[in-house]
Amino acid sequence: MFFLLVLSFTREVAAQGVSIDSSRYPRIVTFTAQQDHDNMMQQLGIKKLRPGPSGNESAPNHANYDESLANPCPKLPDILTTSDGRKVISAAMWWTQRQPQIAGDLEREVYGRLPKNIPKVTWTLKITDREFIGRTPAIVKQLVGHVDNSEYPLINVDINMMLVVPTNVKGPVPVLMMFGFPTFPSPAQPPPADMEKLNAAFKEMMIKNDPSVKAIFDRYPAYTPITRLPGPNFFAPPPAGDLPPTEQLLAAGWGYVTIEPNSIQADNGAGLTRGIIGLVNKGQPRKPDDWGSLRAWAWGAARGLDYLETDTLVNAKKVGIEGVSRYGKAALVTLAFESRFAVGLIGSSGKGGATLHRRVFGEAVESLTGSGEYHWMAGNYLKYGASEASFGSKTGCDLPVDSHELIALCAPRLTFISYGIPEKGDAKWLDQQGSYMATVAAGPVFKLLGAKDIGVSNDYQQEKMPPMLTDMLNGELAWRQHDGGHTDAPNFKYFIPWANKFLKYERIAAP
Ligand code: GCU
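Above: inputs. Below: predicted complex with alpha-D-glucopyranuronic acid.
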């Protein structure tokens, strides 16, 4: 607590120390999410949006869970037919014609485009720590990626990231980047003698500050205000059950990164005039095809990968991306659009992630176009929830693309689609079945590019989702529904060997 206070104090001084003449720059527009959402509706000529369904199954307006009503437009856009009707018959034709079409449509209508003028990111290593995480020795690096804001200094973007690399294996190691909150897993602590010194100095300082506390210390002479946390215990039996995912990675000779989405772009509509999106727009609201938070998070992950390419501990050709729920969507968008990522673990991503937009089951297009979630998407996406607009009305069925094509943009790279089960809390809202259909329908592109898909036919209208715990892990495209809840943790023990096999990685102990 004490150290925290000191830290936040210095930050404030530093912030005030830089004097910016704000009159030289356009002012930051401060909208509530509702105002920003209204502004986007106006730009698009939308008068009314259909309300999203309720997630509460006993509410009168609850989401549809009747499979017979879930496919109002069952035929998906043909993944291997160009927009002018030609069959895609070769890998070359995919890369030069169909892939750019799909990517372009997904950018324009769904996730937004990357602006051309995104400023440069400079990474700084803040702290290097040598830690024991469980039983694995590791180097931990706290990194900050500062985005050049000299063009618009009113907005500051510092991307927070933590890199953890095991040191008991021969490197460079593969790394899984995870959307989450970067913390030091197990900060190294001073040895007992240094701890004693710190405690003596701390006691003295406290007494100087308030002489009455001396009586307390005199009453408890053996008490030390700063205590040591328990360190690694190499003699304890291994814990029962699976290790946490991060420890499984380290034990398998992988490193991992946690990267903080909110340090790239806020997870709300009010934040769209700030963060990296706001910085590029100089504090002004988005245009309809500007990027949303998912694409911004994906961009930030790619900047994290830029750093990893400079770190000799890391094999930057074997870097993966992982996330669950909204970060599962972000992980899929990252893998699809940032081609240097070699592998993705896409956890419970639902609408806007792996499941089909066209499906009406659980979360709907209308949920994503409402003011609570629209910031994930491009403004243009709002059109598909419109009931009254200058262009009439549209639904998910009017989208020129769908999520099978987003998954296909990951091909032939390693793509693991993961879900849990509704009984344990991975709600039906996420539409596991629709995600399975999209995975099945993405298969032809993996095969065209010389990879394997999940190993069933590509008839997405006929194929049935297999029961939970069925491993469909023989291809670069993989599917597994574990028997846990809204998490991908139970799938890590399947993900790691699957990724190792295709990445041809084997842990070798350090000499
Ligand atoms: C809501 C939302 C989902 C999202 C989830 C989450 O349930 O509707 O789209 O994935 O929150 O990120 O926790």
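Residues 325-326, 350-351, 363, 367 surround alpha-D-glucopyranuronic acid (CB under 6 Å).
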